[in-house]
Design goal:
With about 110 residues, this protein is mainly β. The chain has no helices and eleven strands. The strands form two sheets. Strands 2, 4, 5, 6, 9, 10 and 11 form a seven-stranded mixed beta sheet that branches. Strands 1-3-8-7 form a four-stranded antiparallel beta sheet, with no helix packed on it.
Amino acid sequence: QVQLVESGGGLVQFGGSLRLACAASGFTFRNHAMSWYRQAPGKERELVASISSTGGDTVYADSVKDRFTISRDNAKNTVYLQMNSLESEDTAVYYCYAVRFRSWGQGTQVTVAS
């Protein structure tokens, strides 16, 4: 059974940083691409970043490029999202997504205070 557990969200000041983590279990993590999505109040869920199984390829939404970094540690079955220079528009619930299994985590709230 695929299980994804996010952590690391919270309240941060404008311009601050947070690092989200997603611990995966129930599948062979190192073989599969992973993604981070987010959903702001009243908006649709949107892709933030994706990373290939080896970590060699990454993709970012234009709105977070050069501010966010997705990475993974296949030894720890964990994918990360380092978020720098946070803006009010980054306030959302952030979700981890296992692409192959179409499986979501429960989400972690990120709130950026202006």
